[in-house]
Amino acid sequence: MTSEAERKMQFLFALRSRGVTDARVLDAMEKVDRGPFVKGLFAERAYEDMPLPIACGQTISQPSVVGLMTQALKVSPRDKVLEVGTGSGYQAAILAHLARRVYTVDRYKRLVTEARAIFDAQDITNITAFTADGSHGLPDQAPFDRILVTAAAEDPPGPLLAQLKIGGIMVVPVGQSDTVQSLIRVTRSDTGYDYDELRPVRFVPLLEGLGKE
Ligand code: SAH
């Protein structure tokens, strides 16, 4: 039986060895327990560096990928962040430790309801979660300093680009579903958008409309 301290050390070691080196990101990931975000059969694997199935046929991302995406987003404490693809809520909880305010949306009401319950239980009060098609962004809350998309789009969605502040950063997996996608970082300048290709990733697709559950 591994002790909790040992498990935590192994978890952080896996993150570091896969390139998560930003001290603030590592600190946030140390604070947010992944356990409650993984339910049922897979709960005992919550501390392994692998993606796992969650409700509604979706997945909670691999912790090292969460870390690398969060690191690429360069979140600062005053930022207002939009996450598209709440899923389990794990990524949003990490962002909540790094930013002033986090808005997160998922097309499945069930996932949003379950994630909200975990945020409440963990006393995280700076996340607002909505059931919505996030490919349209959140016009009422825009513009955002940072946008993180955790589902793969064929192209960075236009409404999200438009809702990014000048100087803002968006991280988004881009590519066809079921193939290897590229993680892209988009930086908005006062004259346009700069694109950086970061690494290959694999995410579930960004779909239109609301889910059935
Ligand atoms: N960030 C999550 C993992 C996301 S899995 C976590 O930390 O657990 C991708 C999620 O994107 C799924 O829950 C899926 O329902 C959601 N999704 C896909 N298309 C969407 C859309 N258009 N709007 C909002 N959410 C979407």
Q: What order do the helices and strands come in, and which of them pair?
A:
Blueprint: H1 4-17, H2 23-31, E1 52-53, E2 59-60, H3 63-73, E3 80-84, H4 90-98, E4 101-106, H5 109-121, E5 127-131, E6 144-149, H6 158-162, E7 164-174, E8 181-188, E9 193-201
Parallel strand pairs: 3-4, 3-6, 4-5, 6-7
Antiparallel strand pairs: 1-2, 7-8, 8-9
Bound molecules: S-adenosyl-L-homocysteine.
Task: Name the descriptors.
213 residues; alpha/beta; 9 strands; two-stranded antiparallel sheet; binds S-adenosyl-L-homocysteine
Notes on the protein architecture:
The structure is a single chain. The protein has 213 residues and is of the alpha/beta class. 29% of the residues lie in helices and 25% in strands. The chain has a single domain (4-201), classed as Vaccinia Virus protein VP39 (Rossmann fold), CATH 3.40.50. Bound molecules: S-adenosyl-L-homocysteine.
Counted by DSSP, the helix tally is 6
* Shape category: globular
Helix content: 25-40%
Q: Which molecules are bound in this entry?
A: S-adenosyl-L-homocysteine
Q: Output the helix-strand order.
A: HHEEHEHEHEEHEEE
For the record, the count of structural domains works out to 1
Assign the CATH architecture.
Answer: 3-Layer(aba) Sandwich
Question: Could you write a compact summary of the structure shown?
Answer:
This protein is of the alpha/beta class. 29% of the residues lie in helices and 25% in strands.
